[in-house]
Amino acid sequence: MFTLRYHTPAEWAQIVIADMDTFLIDHAAAEKKASGMAISMLSHYPDRTKLVKAMIDLSIEEMTHFREVVKIMTERGLQLGADAKDPYVNEFRKVMRKGSDLYFLDRLLTAGIIEARGCERFGLVGEALPEGKLQDFYRAIAKSEAKHNRLFIDLAAEYFPQRDIDARMDELLDIEAEIVKALPLRAALH
Questions:
Q1: Is the whole model's pTM more than 0.85, yes or no?
Q2: Coil, helix or strand for 113?
Q3: pLDDT given at position 145
């Protein structure tokens, strides 16, 4: 597996807790986008049988998370917001290489790293929240995200030599760390 090379400061979780409503709206959008990304992957690579099956399952799981977040939002009197561009994801996409195989590998590896960042951050929220239903929810989400980052790396191993995965992952982890360091701390997943 791999380890993120920059750890989100504890201050970020305090910002989230102080503006939980904003975070919930962003979280819902992130889950919806993650489900859409899984559908996009299986649509672009219909000949990759293992990927198609995995992305079907992932899209359903992410949509289930979306439904759960929307339920919490509704209980708090919140509504979905318009989808906004995610500066973290957009910066990360800029480094994806051209060429069908290079792009496919980068797409899998960046998805794995994005899921790992989500796991880290949901875990921080789960630890910072007071005991109760919301804390339990975020701890469960963090565990789910941990499975997702492994999923994408395992899929990369189905289609690419390990040396190619390791070399590119080394580069992408450094790039991702710089992107996260440069982003302002806000009540958003990224």
A1: yes
A2: helix
A3: 83
